[in-house]
Request: fold
Amino acid sequence: MLALITGATSGIGKAIAWELSRRGWKLILTGRNEQQLKRLQQTLPVQTEIIALDLAEDRAPFMLYDFCKDKRVDMLVNNAGFGVFGAFTQTDLEQELELIEVNIRALHILTKLFLRDFCRRDSGYILNVASSAGFLTGPLFSSYYASKNYVLRLSLAIAEELRHAKSRVSISVLCPGPVDTAFNDRAGVRFRVKALTPQRVAKEAVIGTLTRKLLIVPGLSIRLGLCAAKLLPECVLSRISYYLQAAKQK
Reply:
């Protein structure tokens, strides 16, 4: 079995690579940092190929698909992504456009191209990494929250299409809360609550994907919080979210 993982050099992506390797999966890993990819390749106990790409670049998702299309990938893990923190009027537009390219456009392209292949042979797994942010509105983190809403809703829609077609292809969407990764440093925030380890999230993600679970939400407190959020009006949730985001500033 062969899995392709984007954003594999750190955090959840790296942890998923290790989790799958322990189960004997061969891997194709991609990320921006070639040296980090090479170091990871040398330490993993399974056959691993690497390709260094920046998925924000226009042709990169297509180049990645071309690299993989003749290798019979069994699982696609769309993990690459990042956040931009700050008031919408003050955040950098170029950073936000890059965020949209990675979090939305690249994921959309790869999901469509690999899903078509999986459907033709009626087998395969897709794991799209969203966030608990995908269920909410995120003042001060607006672009990131919006991007994860897109990932969540796209994945849910595809899942229903697959169910209706009686397809054996499976799509799962991972929606963790705070995770202790380099994401926080790039976004310029710090969590005020205890974050889960990437290893715990990766284990739940892999088990959930292989058992064809649609929504994977690690951590009881996050699951309870999301259930409680359904009881509140959107305007109240947005106000609560604003103060929670403001508390993350370094």
User: Anything to note?
Assistant: The beta strands are 2-5, 26-31, 48-52, 75-78, 125-129, 170-174, 215-216. The chain is about 50% helix and 10% strand. Residues 127 and 137 are 23 Å apart (CA to CA).
